[in-house]
Amino acid sequence: MTDPRNTAGFETRAVHAGQAFDPATGAVIPPVHFSTTYAQDGIGGLRGGYEYGRSGNPTRTALETQLAALEGGAHALSFASGLAAEDALLRAALGPGDEVLLGSDVYGGTYRLIARVLGAWGVGVRVVDMSDLGAVRAALEERAARILWVETPSNPLLRITDIARLSELGHDAGALVVVDNTFASPALQQPLALGADVVVHSTTKYLGGHSDVVGGALVLNDEELFAQAKFLQFAVGAVSGPLDAWLTTRGIKTLALRMRRHSENAHAIAEFLSGHEAVERVYYPGLPSHPGHDIAARQMSGFGGIVSVGLADAASARRLAESTRLFQLAESLGGVESLMNYPDEMTHASVRGTELAVPPEVVRLSVGIESIDDLIADLDQALDRL
Ligand SMILES: *Cc1c(COP(=O)(O)O)cnc(C)c1O
Predict the structure, then answer these.
(1) Percentage with pLDDT > 70 across the chain
(2) Which of 12, 68, 261, 386 is deepest in the core (most CB within 10 A)?
C-alpha cells in the first residue's frame, strides 16, 4: 500500500499503477503476455501464481491493478465485456428469489440481462427512478431488494443520483449498492469513496477511450464478494484477452486528459444547443438548469462528455441524427471521436415499450475531443436542415 504507484495523484496512478518496467529487459512498457500456459518449477511450483490463461494472465493483472488504483478499491476484475462483468457480479451476489432494484434509465442491456437471462433462473427486477430517493425508499419498504443498481449520470437522460445518500438508504435496507460508473469514469467520480459497494464499468467506453476494444470490469472492497466474482471469472471464463487488456491499459493512461477535454467540449455544446430555437430540451448535468446540477457538482469533478437533446418530435430527432458530418451515426460512446445516437431505435431498442423506453424525440451525443468550433459548426448545419 505504500507503493507510490497506488497512492499518488490520479494522473500518476493512471500512468504507473500496474505498469512497473519489465525486470528482465528494462522495457518501460511491460510486455503483453500471450502465453496460455506457464512452466512450473516442479508440480505446483508456480512463478508469480500464473498457471493457465483463463485463471490468470500478467497483462490482465496489470489492468486490474490499474483499475483498482483508479477507483480506490481493494480489488478489480477485468472481463471480456461490460455485460460479462455485470453477469459475474449478479451471479455472485444473487440467488433465486432475489430482486434487483434498477434505475429507470440504465443501459438497456443491463435490463435485458437481468430480465431475460437471469429472470429464467428466478431473479426478479423492479424499476425505479433512482434520482428520486423518496421513490427508492418507498420501493424498498414495499419489498426488499438484494441490489440497488444505479447509473449516474444515467443513460441517455443524464439523471443524477446522490450516491452517498443512496448508499445509506440501500445499506439501511440491507441491499448492496452497485454504481455503473461508465459515463463518469473514475477521473470524474469515485463511487466507492461515496459509500457504494461495487463499481461496474464498460471499459469499452471512456476507459479504453478509442473505440477499439470491448471490455468490462468490477471494482470492489468486500473480500467475500470479490472471491465469489473471481471464482465466476475463472469458472465461467468471460476473461479479457491479453491484447484487449493491454489496449485498455494504454487508453487509461490518458483518461484524465481526455475526460477534461470531453467535459469542456460537451459543456460548450450543451450551451450552444440550449440557445438554439430548434431545440426543446438539453440534458446535461453541467447546466445550472439541470435538476441534478448541485449534486453532480458535489460528487463529480467534471460533468462528462455526454449530452442528450430533445427535439420537437421523433421525425426531427431522426433527421438531426442523420444530418451531421463530423458526428458519426453509431452506437457506443466514450471514444475520442464524436458520435450521434438515436436511442429509441439504436442503443435502447431492447427496452422499447418497457418502463425504460427512451422518449423518441431524444438524440444522444457522445462529444469527442475534436476542435470545438468544428463540432458546433457541424451541429449548426444539421439543425438548420430540420
Ligand atoms: C456499453 C455499456 C454497458 C455494456 O458494456 P459492454 O462493454 O457493451 O458489454 C454497460 N453500461 C453502460 C453504461 C454502457 O454504456
Answers:
(1) 98
(2) 68
